[in-house]
Design a protein that fits this description.
Elements (H helix, E strand, L loop, with lengths): L2 H5 L2 E6 L8 E5 L2 E8 L2 E6 L13 E3 L2 E3 L6 E2 L5 E3 L18 E4 L2 E5 L18 E11 L2 H9 L4 H4 L11 E9 L2 E8 L6 H6 L5 E7 L3 E7 L4 E13 L2 E11 L5 H33 L14 H8 L10 E5 L1
Antiparallel strand pairs: 1-10, 2-3, 3-4, 5-6, 6-7, 7-8, 9-10, 11-17, 12-13, 12-18, 13-14, 14-15, 15-16, 16-17
Protein name: Rieske [2Fe-2S] domain protein
GO molecular function: 2 iron, 2 sulfur cluster binding; metal ion binding; oxidoreductase activity
Organism: Neisseria sicca ATCC 29256
Amino acid sequence: MNIEKMKRAWYPLIPSKQLKDKPVHRELLGQQLVLVRLNGQAACMDDCCPHRHVPLSAGKIVSGKLQCCYHGWEFDAQGKVLTVVGGMCACEEAESVPTFPCREYDDWVWVCLVSDIPFEPYADFEAPEGFETANAVRYMEGDFIHAIENFLDPTHTRYIHAKLLRNNGRQSMQISQSHHERGFVTHYRLNQQQNGLINKLFDKGITVNDAAFTFPGLVRIDYFTPNSHEYRISAFFIPQNKGSMGLNVRVHFPKSRFPLPIKFHLFRPFLERLMVQDSAIIKSQYHHHKEHYANRPYCSTTNDLVIDHLLHLFLENMPEGIDKTGEMSL
């Protein structure tokens, strides 16, 4: 993948409410990070004390400073060494800890690995007007591109999510697709209502799905009936290292008298089951390919709607993706 291109993007690494009085470790594109809240402000720096290379995420916060757990060195939000316990109180010769751009927006802490990239919100990660949001954080093993493809691929649902999303019987849809510089959108108009358990419990007559991807890792799916916008699911894939990723999921519900915690509590077990099933097949596919078939090319079909768009966005010198239209049967 084009790692340098991916470094020049912002990623939501942790919900703001989870960054409290302890440092938190995260990994982004192989970079070890520590997130910390100092004097009320979120900060991000290299997760390594310059003294003996102990992870700073194993330390603690003392009087608005990040203290290393090994020898007590203390750092401010800019990574500057403020205190060397048992030595100089202001160690000008000590190496400062590298820091990374960090800001809070829409209840998340966002980080970029390159200093000159302005922050721009991702509209598809946010709740539509009149909606409220519940957040969840998960981790997956597998190939980053194929994990995103899986999220946007309807053709596997009859097999991986049998009974949950689809039962036997014909289901078809009309598709149309468009792309732009940073991503693409696929529009699905359903000819038959989906008939799995989740649909029987939560589907109020959904006839349209809009699925979109925005570089470097944001996917979202909107669900519509003829008269209303029913749900939005947004997920930001966080590339931790080769073969591992974080998945920050947001489920957006229309505001109603029904409290959000209860709505999410009812919906969450089904969402968790879908994620378990997808995680298992993505992990299996990744390890089987890597260990036994790494030199064998994949085969693709006309129903593989998004892979060429993804390869163009993530790999250098790949041709632009081709937008698809027509009818798809599952």
